[in-house]
Amino acid sequence: MFLWESAMSVLGGLAIFIYGMQMMSDGLHHVAGERMRTILQMFSKNRFVAILSGAIVTCVIQSSSASTVMVIGFINAGLLNLSQAVGLIFGANIGTTITAQLVAFDISWIIKPAIVTGLILSFIPRPKVAKWSGTVLGFGFLFLGMMMMSGALKELKDLPAFAKAFQLFQCAPAEGSSFIPPAALLGAIAVGLAATLIIQSSSACTGIIIALGASGLIDIYTAVALVLGSNIGTTITAQLAALTANRVAKQAALAHTLFNVLGVVIMCLTFLIPVNGEPVFFALISFLGGDLPRQIANAHTIFNVFTTLILIPFVPLFAKVCERVIRNKHIQVKYQKLEPHLLDTPSIALAQTTGSLRQMLKKAWEMIDCSLKIYSSNDEKNQEIVKELEERENDIDERQKDITGYLSLLMRRSLTQTEAEQIPPLLHCTNDVERIGDHAAMIRAITEKLNQENLKFSAGAEEEFNILHKLSAELTAATVGQLTEYDEIAAKRANDLERKLFEMIGNSEKEHLNRINSGDCRPQVGILYLELLEELRKIGRHLENINDRASMFYSRLPGSTEK
Q1: What are the C-alpha distances in Å from 39 to residues 50, 60, 68, 293, 483?
Q2: What is the pLDDT at residue 329?
Q3: pLDDT (tens digit, 9 = 90+) per residue, 463-519?
Q4: What does each C-alpha distance from 267 to 115, 235, 452 come to in angstroms?
Q5: Cα–Cα distance, 434 to 429 (Å, whole number)
Q6: 444, 386 in Cβ contact below 8 A?
C-alpha cells in the first residue's frame, strides 16, 4: 500500500510538473505573441545572432524540442536556410537550460501565492493582464509538481528494492579512482535517452533528474550521464517533424542530432582528464558549489554552453555535412507556405497566410490578364495559358480551401486579440480572390465570342479597353504590394487607382451607349462590351475590399521565399 501511494505521488507530481511547464510555456508564448516575428527577423543576421535568437526562443517556450520543431516549420515554409537553422539549433540547446536552473531553486514558499495570483489574473477581463495568468499558474504548478516528486522519491529511497534499482547504473568512480565505469556511463546515457523519448521534453526529463538528485537516489555522476542521454533523446522530436518536410528541413533535423551526439562525445572525453582526483568537468562543478540539485542544473548549463562555444566555428561545416548526407540535386526544394508546425506561432502563421493570399491573387490576375488578351493580344504564349485556365481555376479553388482550412485550425489555438481579429478579414479576402478567379471564365467567354464571330470594338472602345486593362493591372500590382508590406503612401496610390478605374468604367459606359445610339457601334458588340465593363468593375470591387483590409494583416516575413 505504501509503495502504491508513493508511486502515485511520484506520477502525480510528474503530471503536475509537466502540466505546469506546458501551461507556463503556453502563457509565455502567448505573452510573447507578436514579438516572435521580431525574433525571427534576427535569424538572418549571422550565426552568433542566430544562436542568441535560438536561446531566447527556447527560454520563452521552455523546450528545445518545441523550438527545433518550430525551426523545421520555418525551413519548410522557406523562412530560414540551413546555416541559419543550425545556428538556431545551437542556441536552443543553451536556452533549454533555463528550466533546470529554475527548478533547482528551493522556493516552495512561492507555490501557493503563484497559484492564487494566477487564478485571480484569469478573471481579469483586460487581455494584457489575463494572458499572464497561464504563465503564473504554470509557474506555481511547476514547483508544486517538483515538490510532490521530491517528497515521494525521498520516501521511496528507504525501500531497499527501489534504491537497488538505481544502483544498477550508478556512475560514480570507485574509491581512490577518477575513472567513470564505461558500462554504467553508457547505461545511464541510454536511460536518459529513453526517458526523453517517452516524455518528449528534455526540460521535463531534466526536472525529474533534479528531483531524483534532491531525494538522494542518484549522485552527480549519474545525474550528468542521464542529462547527456536526455540531450540526445530530445532530437527525436525534430526528426519526427521532418519526416514529411522538405529536404532542407531533414538536413536541419540531422544537424540537431549530430550536434547533440557530438556534444555528448566531447563531454565524455573530458571525463578522461583528471584534476585533483576527479574528472575535470566534475571538478569544475564542485568548484562552483551548491547543493546537488544546483550542481545538476549547473552541469546541464555548462555542458550545453561549452559544447556550443566549441562548435560555433563549425556551423558552415555542419551545414555542408548535412547537405552531403541528405542530398538530391535533381529534385527542387519545395516550400509549404501553410506549414502546420507554424500554427503554434500564430503571428508567423498569419504572416504566412497573407503570403499565400498574395500568391493566390497573383495567380488569379494571371487568369484575368490572359482572358483579356484573348481579344487583342492572343499570341502563342497567351494561347498556351488559355489551355490551362480551367486547371488554374481549380488551383485557385484549392488554394482557397487550403487557406480556409489553415485558418480554421489556427482559430483553435490561443490567440491574442490582434491575431484573432485578422482571421475574419483574411477569410473575406480569400473569398474575394477566389471570385476574381471566377471572373476570368466570364471574361474569357466574352472575348472568345468576339473572336469567334469576328466582332470588333469601335476605335474609341478599343482605346478605353486597353486603358482599363492597364489600370486593372496597376491596381492588382498595388494590391499585391499592400499584401507584401503595407504602406500609407502606397495605400493612397491604390485608392487613387480604384477611383480612377471606377470613374473610367462609368464614363466608358456612358460613351459606349452614345456610340450605340449614334450607330458607331453595333448593338451586339455593344452589349458584350458593357458586360466586359461590368466584369472589370466587379474585379475592381474585390481588389478594393482587399486593399481596405490590407492594413490589418501581418506582412511578409524576412527571408520568406516567393513562389
Answers
A1: 9, 11, 15, 32, 21
A2: 58
A3: 888 999 999 999 999 999 998 888 888 889 999 999 999 999 998 888 877 776 776
A4: 39, 18, 78
A5: 9
A6: yes
C-alpha cell belonging to residue 521? 457601334
Task: Report in angstroms the alpha-carbon separations of 228 from 41, 89, 232, 257, 279.
Answer: 32, 17, 7, 13, 16
Give a three-class secondary structure readout of 164-209: HHHHCCCCCCCCCCCCCCHHHHHHHHHHHHHHHHHHCCHHHHHHHH
Which of 169-173, 516-520, 559-563 has maximum average pLDDT?
169-173
Instruction: State the cell numbers at 384.
Output: 498556351
Nearest Cα to Cα of residue 23 among 115, 108, 142:
142
User: In which residue are the cell numbers 533535423 written?
Assistant: 253
Burial zone of 289 (CB within 10 Å; 0-12 exposed, 13-18 middle, 19+ buried): exposed
- Asked if residues 74 and 37 have their Cβ atoms less than 8 Å apart, the reply is no
Cβ contacts of residue 80 below 8 Å, gap of 6+? 43, 71, 74, 88, 559
Task: Single out the residue of 449, 456, 442, 461 nearest to residue 514, CA to CA.
Answer: 461
> How wide is the angle at C-alpha 384 spanned by C-alphas 383 and 389, nearest 5°?
90
Q: Which three cell numbers stand for residue 372?
A: 483579356
**Contact predicate 425/553, CB 8 Å:** yes
Show the cell assigned to 546.
482587399
* Whole-prediction pTM: 0.76
- Here the cell at position 298 is 549547473
Averaged pLDDT score across all residues of the chain: 83
Taken as a whole, the chain contains a residue count of: 563
Query: Cell for 553?
Result: 494583416
Q: How far is CA 536 from the centre of its chain?
A: 38
Q: Which of 132-136, 213-217, 463-467, 539-543 has the highest mean pLDDT?
A: 539-543
DSSP state of 556: P
Give dist(CA 516, CA 504) in Å, integer. 18
Which tens digits make up the pLDDT trace of 32-51?
A: 655 665 665 566 566 778 88
d(CA 263, CA 171): 19
- Strands 274-275 and 278-279 come out as antiparallel
The grid coordinates listed for 258 are: 549530430
Q: How far apart are CA 183 and CA 188, in angstroms?
A: 9
Q: Which residues of 67-81 are buried (b: 16+ CB within 10 A; e: fewer)?
A: bbbbbbbbbbbbbbb
List the grid coordinates of 539. 474585379
Residue with cell 485578422: 422
Query: How is residue 145 written as a grid cell?
Result: 509538481
Instruction: Name the residue among 348, 277, 265 with its Cα closest to residue 311.
Output: 265
